[in-house]
C-alpha cells in the first residue's frame, strides 16, 4: 500500500515540501525536458525548479513531438544548457539583450545525452555552460565531482549569472530540506560511514 502523496510536489504528505517552494519570477524562461526515469526519483529536483519558477515549464518524455513549438516562444533566444566544446559560458544580460529560453535536459548524463540523440532539434541548439568548479550541495552522491550539480542547482547557478544581482537561492530550500530528511532517515552514523570524509 502506497503512502498518500502531495499532488503538487509528489512527496509523501508527511514530507510535503510545498511550504518551502518559492514563487520566483525570472526574465529567463526555463524549459525542463525530463527523462521519464527521473519522475519517480526521490529528489526529482527538476520538478522542484519548475514549481518554484513562474516562468518555467516541465515536460516529461524521450521523444518530444511538439519540440518545435516548445522551442519557439516569441521574444526569446533559445540556448541549451549542456556542455560541449563549442558551448559558450553564460553571461549576465545587458539591457538590450533578448531574454533566453534556457532548455535544460534532466536525467543522468547518459539519459540526457539520449534525449539529445533522440531529438535532433535539441542537439542542434546553440549551447551554453556554467562556470567550471561549482560544488554541489547534494551530500548523498557517491562521488560528486566539481561541476556535477543537480538540475535545480544548475538552474539556480545559471539564473544567478544571467539575472545578476537577482538571487534564486530560495529555489534550493526544498532541495536542502529533502537532503536533510534523507540524512535523518538513514541516521547520522550511516551517513558518516557512507558519505563522510568528503
From TrEMBL:
SMART domains: DTW. One of its GO terms (biological process) is tRNA processing. GO terms for molecular function: tRNA-uridine aminocarboxypropyltransferase activity. It holds the Pfam family DTW. Belongs to the TDD superfamily. DTWD2 family. It comes from the Bacteria. It is an enzyme of class 2 (transferase). Residues 2-187 form the DTW domain. This is tRNA-uridine aminocarboxypropyltransferase. Keywords: S-adenosyl-L-methionine, Transferase, tRNA processing. The lineage of its organism: Bacteria, Pseudomonadati, Pseudomonadota, Gammaproteobacteria, Pseudomonadales. InterPro entries: DTW, DTWD2/TAPT. Its EC number is 2.5.1.25.
Amino acid at each position: 500500500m502506497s503512502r498518500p502523496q502531495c499532488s503538487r510536489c509528489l512527496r509523501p504528505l508527511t514530507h510535503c515540501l510545498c511550504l518551502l517552494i518559492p514563487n520566483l519570477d525570472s526574465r529567463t524562461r526555463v524549459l525542463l525536458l525530463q527523462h521519464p526515469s527521473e519522475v519517480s526519483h526521490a529528489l526529482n529536483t527538476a520538478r522542484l525548479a519548475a514549481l518554484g519558477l513562474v516562468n518555467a515549464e516541465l515536460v516529461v518524455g524521450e521523444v518530444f513531438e511538439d519540440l518545435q513549438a516548445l522551442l519557439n516562444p516569441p521574444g526569446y533566444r533559445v540556448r541549451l544548457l549542456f556542455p560541449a566544446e563549442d558551448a559558450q559560458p553564460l553571461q549576465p544580460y545587458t539591457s538590450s539583450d533578448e531574454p533566453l529560453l534556457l532548455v535544460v535536459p534532466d536525467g543522468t548524463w547518459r539519459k540526457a545525452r539520449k534525449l539529445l540523440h533522440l531529438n535532433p532539434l535539441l542537439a542542434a541548439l546553440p549551447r551554453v555552460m556554467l562556470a567550471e568548479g561549482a560544488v554541489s550541495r547534494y551530500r548523498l552522491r557517491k562521488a560528486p565531482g566539481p561541476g556535477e550539480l543537480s538540475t535545480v542547482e544548475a538552474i539556480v547557478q545559471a539564473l544567478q549569472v544571467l539575472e545578476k544581482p537577482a538571487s534564486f537561492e530560495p529555489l534550493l530550500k526544498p532541495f536542502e530540506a529533502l537532503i536533510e530528511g534523507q540524512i535523518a532517515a538513514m541516521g547520522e552514523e550511516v551517513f558518516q560511514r557512507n558519505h563522510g570524509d568528503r
